[in-house]
Amino acid sequence: MGAVAGVAAVDVGGFAYAGGWLRPDDLTPPRFADRFEQVFGRHEGFRRNHAKGLSATGSFASTGAGAAICRAAVFRPGTVPVVGRFSLGGGLPNQADKPDTVRGLGLMFQTSDGQQWRTAMVNFPVFTDRTPQGFYERLLASKPVAGTGKPDPQKMAAFLQQHPETAAALKIIKQTPPSIGFADSTFHGLNAFHFTNSAGETVPVRWTAVPQQTSQPASKGNDYLFDDLIRAVAQRPLAWKLVLTIGEPGDPTNDATKPWPQSRRTIEAGTINISAVQTEAAGNARDVNFDPTVLPDGITVSDDPLLAARSAVYARSYTRRAEESKSPSEVNVGQVLS
Fold it and tell me: Per the record's keyword annotation, is Cell membrane included, yes or no (predicted)?
């Protein structure tokens, strides 16, 4: 049950109808944003999910190997700038850092041809829900109850009985314990996309950011995960290898709860380098919507129903916080390094 509570608000979550695939009287972007506020409270100026975060900047150095399966400029040999954001799942901007809280990494690649590639990854190998409706129901079932601070066991048991795909996904997640910190976390894109190369050949792809450094536990306190990240980046840039996994016929592209076989072909597309982090303020990643459907030529969405839904609710969350007054971020880079 504790594991379920820890994944209640993955940043691939908060879903709604999009493109007309759900009835208007079922789920809408406002209803999903309202559900986050119902569970976590209303915190003006912050994201409805992954509210606690730290902005980052860096670059992506492409090996050129990704061009074999994708014509997007980001995979040509060379380096492009990157804007990123490290975060913790949930709608509480001042929550205490905990090792089992889902960690997120949002990235925006900006290429010289003016196109962008945005992705929102988490440190889980699979997602917990197959459909938007499943996520919506689990979010409420995972709401901590007064007194224990944990979900109601009966409500969660009932939810898992109705959603065996979530129970199976949680077993996979439990087999991958969280790393010490952000720097040594592996981040997964989770959803499948279609990559098309210059010859017009298309293949299904998932991707993973694999850390190239370890973390050393040093800090204690409310913000210890972020404090350690700030100190690590101050010492040297942090790096993650971007690994593309190519699916084969029969591999599910419409179900993020199911992993692909480990035997699938992979391509090391390049290295993500994070050279600086910043307290969230106007002009940095605080105001970036890491909509995973913002894609360059050569990458398109798959038939995964979560993708259109993510886009719809990300937009609703962005609109709400953009119109609200802003409060100082819990994470303060200057204070940690002073």
Answer: no
